[in-house]
UniProtKB/TrEMBL annotation:
Pfam families: Sugar_tr. It is a multi-pass membrane protein. PROSITE patterns: MFS, SUGAR_TRANSPORT_1. GO terms for molecular function: sugar transmembrane transporter activity. InterPro entries: MFS_dom, MFS_ERD6/Tret1-like, MFS_sugar_transport-like, MFS_trans_sf, MFS_Trehalose_Transporter, Sugar_transporter_CS. It is found in: Cell membrane. The chain crosses the membrane at residues 60-79, 88-107, 113-133, 145-164, 170-191, 262-288, 300-319, 326-348, 360-385, 397-419, 425-447. This is Facilitated trehalose transporter Tret1. It comes from Culex pipiens.
Length: 461
């Protein structure tokens, strides 16, 4: 069955998606916080009473976020089933507010460990709940575009932090940023829970009202027989899926469709992290200091953050035109190519080769890398999962994939500062670029196109 949405319904879907992404924007700022402030924390002017942060401590500040993400993915995978998707998303303001509060009052590196862990909880919740929310409320024709807002909001938050971190003091930033989760908490009271979550909770009347909202219908008079028929089909589908999920067994995960969906999900999460772009963005200022760019590290990071936005907008435009697989291939091979350019320049510089007049290459190659990453690898893996997984194990399979990305993210963030110290920038980049080229082959051979797939259909049960 394919629900038909009026144009006003699409507007409601866009407004709801933008509302939930306020906390994602705030989370992006929390992700980007490390880049401008880690060099300060490692300097003699460190604002911490415990003194300058060491390289080892800095790697923990960067990576402990992923342990929080692991915890958040598990917790929010459970909460979405128990209290619903929208309520789970609304609660994300708590951990994000806690991050900014601890950063402001924190006086030791251990306080920052806790703050980054809580920021990770927010991220784990975002990657588990947002794809489910968008899959529940959106028409298949705009699902890809709405999913791209996830990356656009997060990347905008990172860019904002690069700029704000370059302009404002360490203690001023959290005071400004805590306004975002506050606004989010207020606006979340204005959008309804998804029809699917309400049906799972047996709230049939509220589910029908929710579907009216996301379909753009104001009153019962606007509810055509076709709408009522569609609602009954949705109701029967969800209740049937609920009964099946109540009897979820091991063999449900061993069917060919389930195994393929879960393996593809885990692989895409691995590729998303071990292409290296997220780790590079996290340590952007330090990376540019290592690369030999003549621009200041802060300015270079801001430029790269702006390129992220351009790439995400390109994904927003083309994802429902070109399809998921095509953009994934372009993104994966393009990311590998950009990293290769940076690695070759870094290696030549380490060999004391005269590179006069070529100091534009680091910012150009990283800009290309980030742009092409944002076109596909940045966001497609997250919302393509509900299009790949059978409905019966969709929530469980999605949670497994999200747990896997937090583990991969922890490893990549933890090892990058160590790799930079042991094998230098060109060695680290060589590992990431190789992952991209091998990953592109896997995508071409094994990952199907899911553009326009109907999520509410018998074959997806």
């Amino acid at each position: 069955m394919c629900l038909k949405f009026e144009s006003k319904g699409v507007l409601h879907q866009v407004l709801a998606t933008c509302t939930i992404n306020i906390v994602n924007y705030a989370h992006g700022a929390a992700l980007g916080w490390v880049s401008p402030f880690l060099p300060l924390l490692q300097s003699e002017d460190s604002p911490l009473e415990t003194g300058p942060v060491t390289v080892e401590q800095g790697s923990w500040i960067g990576s402990i976020l992923c342990l929080g993400g692991l915890f958040g993915a598990i917790v929010y995978g459970y909460l979405t089933e128990k209290i619903g998707v929208k309520k789970s998303i609304a609660s994300l303001c708590i951990s994000n507010m806690s991050f900014w509060t601890i950063v402001y009052f924190g006086t030791s590196v251990y306080h920052l460990y806790l703050a980054r862990f809580l920021a990770g909880v927010t991220g784990g919740g975002v990657i588990v709940t947002f794809p489910l929310f968008i899959a529940d409320i959106s028409d298949s024709k705009v699902r890809g575009a709405l999913g791209s807002i996830l990356a656009l909001a997060g990347n905008s938050g990172i860019l904002t932090m690069y700029i704000v971190g370059d302009l404002l003091s360490y203690r001023t930033v959290p005071v400004v940023m805590i306004s975002l989760p506050t606004l989010f908490a207020i606006l979340m009271t204005l959008i309804p829970e998804t029809p699917q979550s309400l049906l799972k909770q047996r709230n049939v009347t509220q589910a029908e009202q929710s579907l009216k909202f996301y379909s753009g219908l104001k009153s019962d008079q606007e509810c055509t027989p076709e709408f009522k028929q569609q609602f009954e089909k949705l109701r029967n589908f969800i209740l049937n899926s609920k009964l099946q999920s109540d009897r979820l067994q091991l063999q449900d995960f061993t069917s060919p469709a389930a195994k393929k969906g879960i393996l593809i999900g885990i692989f895409l999460m691995f590729l998303n992290q071990f292409c290296g772009v997220f780790a590079i963005l996290t340590y952007a200022v330090s990376i540019f200091s290592e690369s030999g760019s003549t621009l200041s590290p802060g300015t270079s990071a801001i430029i790269m953050g702006a390129i992220q936005i351009v790439g995400t907008i390109a994904s927003f435009i083309f994802i429902d035109l070109a399809g998921r697989k095509v953009l994934l291939l372009i993104s994966t091979y393009g990311t590998g190519l950009g990293l290769t350019c940076l690695g070759v320049y870094s290696w030549l510089r380490a060999q004391s080769v005269d590179l006069t007049g070529l100091d534009w290459i680091p910012i150009a190659s990283l800009s290309l890398t980030v742009f092409l990453f944002c076109v596909g690898l940045c966001n497609i893996p997250f919302f393509v999962l509900p299009e790949l997984l059978p409905a019966k194990i969709c929530n469980a399979g999605n949670t497994i994939s999200m747990i896997s990305i937090t583990i991969f993210s922890f490893i990549s963030l933890k090892i990058l500062p160590i790799l930079l110290e042991q094998i230098q920038l060109h060695g680290a980049v060589a590992i990431f670029a190789s992952t991209c080229f091998i990953g592109g082959i896997v995508i071409a051979l094994f990952i199907p196109e899911t553009k326009g797939k109907n999520l509410v259909s018998p074959e997806n049960v």
